[in-house]
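re: ur question from yesterday

yeah so i grabbed the chain u mentioned. its 507 aa long if i counted rite. heres the sequnce exactly as i have it in my notes:
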Amino acid sequence: MRKRISLLCLTLAAIGMLAACSSNSASTDEKSKKKSLTFVSNFPSDTLDPQLNYTTVRAGIAETLVKVNEQLQIEPWLSKKWKTEDDGTTWVFEIRDGITFQNGKDLNAEAVKHSLERTIKESEAMKSVLKIKEMKASGQVLTITTTEPLATLPSELVHPNTAIIDVDAPDTKSKPMGTGPFKVASFKPNNEMKVKKYKEYWGGEPKLDEVVLTFNDDENARTSALQSGEADIVYCPAIESLNTLKKDSSTVVDIQPSLRNQMLFYNSRQEAFKDKNVRKAFDVLLNPKDVVDTALAGQGSPANGPFLKSLDFSNDQKTNTYGPSEAQKYLEKAGYILKDGKAIKNGKQLSFKLVTYPYRPELPLMSQMLQSEAKKIGVKMDIQQVENMDEYMTTKNDWGIVTYSLVTAPRGDAGYFFNALYMEGGAFNVGHFHEPALTSIINKLNKTVDQKQRNKLARQAGEIAEKETLHSSIVHPNNFVAYRDNVKNWVTTKSEYYVITKDLDVK
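ran it thru and got these structure tokens back, copy pasting raw so excuse formatting
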């Protein structure tokens, strides 16, 4: 009898073990089916507030009323259509039906209105650009009235800072509620963010279950993360690693011309840089081809203006002779005399601070090249690296030049660049220049709908900015991304606005 009981116990135990194994196996299988991807970039994110940072749109958390496609044409997104009812002062946007925020709250015109009101309250730059006088909401229809005719309003609403969020959500800085395919799971400022799919996404269920986005300003560390398998996608790996990565059959390298311009911004509140001859001296000091070859390791092209040559509004008129001897001529026009190896005026050497930042590694290299050449013409230049360049150059006036990487035409139009750099309240009007002739043309540009006429006005604006040397366009860097070959549906976008999408997948 005892033997039978023992055999029965053993049998039941075996069945229990098999059941447990089966259960663990099912759990393992379920876990293995979870689709996850790790993305490493050089985009710092100290907040997820869309009015202060692009990450919320890049990570697929929030969306804008209008978006830009790869042909740099604007197209509907949260708004399915729009029209102007007069000369461009009154705009009517029809919001798509059936969209919810990630907390289940319906998206309607009232919610969009509240979000845009928060945008212009939190961002002085967006307030200046959007020029909103009042908004009225009725059902899914939002009517926006601007303070003046604004032909570019739909294009301006592409900007990630206009992303629509639920303003009543408790924590918009670390867990905003958008309408995108992914919602925030966790966020560590300037370190890591995890997002998980929003199954009820209006555009269809995302293919990935979760995405881990990490930030690292060290390009070599980003490259190592890809090579070790810690990362699936790396934005801007080390330039010198590209050839090695191309030879790796398990890695895909995507290189595209970017809309970026590596630029010099000048500060007119520094006495020396009020003189355009001084600005012109630094405009011609570096040969852009040398910068491409040295700082970009060949991954880019010399800039003849702020925009790529392929764009219809590019004036491409910059045909300078470069080098210290050419720069010296302009310093002499500005009243500087080279004495004992120093550029002297009124008994003082020309000296100033140049500010740069590390997460575009070519910029510190370009700064060092500029410093080296400046020494040859007797100019003392001190280089300072800062982590938050946008904050520094907009709040401090102790610099003469900053090196900056700007996407100059993210919406396929020149209006963004000229309004941001040269209009009062512009997001990048850090040089504090005021050129009445240029302002007049930009005002005309803002009111003009016809694209051919807009292109003509943009070229005229470019000619003035170039003639007065209000900035210097140095090079257009290539945009490059490397990813594992199991990644599907990755698109290296020209605008750099859209990164994590519902279609992104892994095999």
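noticed a couple things. The radius of gyration is 27 Å. also Residues 2-32 form the longest helix (31 residues).
anyway ttyl
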